[in-house]
Structure of DUF883 family protein:
Amino acid sequence: MSNLSDNIEKARAASRERLENAKELAGQGTGIALEKMSESKKRAAALLDDGKTKAAESVAATKKMAKTAASKSEETITKSPLAVVAGGLALGALVGALLPKSKTETKYVGGAGKKINETAKKAYGAAKEAGQEQIETLGLDKDSVQDQIKDLLGKAAEAAKSAAEAATEAVKSEKSDK
């Protein structure tokens, strides 16, 4: 039995040694893991700060573009109010013409819709006549009004183009910063 006791004791000693080695390795692994987590946390914080900065810059650039567009729009409205009114009327007529008539609309509003349509036509005719009288009173002719409308549409297209270019540049700048 003494051989058996010796063998058991040797096995216990070997197990204790392996357990101590395992504890030591686990401690080292934990230290490495904590170090890696700390590094990752620092990188994440740096990326977050960078993202906040870029977002703030983008917001500032967007606000600046919006102010510029508003200023140009105000300038256009001040210089060519008739062109703006004419453009609004044309846009309203276009939207109205493009909207489809639904079966439900016809069913529930059919008769009233016809009356509203007739009234709208009369109102449109009166507005057109009053507008023409106003244009004549101001000494404007068809060509000058058309030129103002073309100028307004050109400026609106230029503003849209400028905004698109600025947005493209902002995206390119953000990509190049990364």
Q: What stands out?
A: Helices lie at 2-79, 81-98, 103-137, 142-177. The CA atoms of residues 27 and 33 lie 10 Å apart. The radius of gyration is 38 Å.
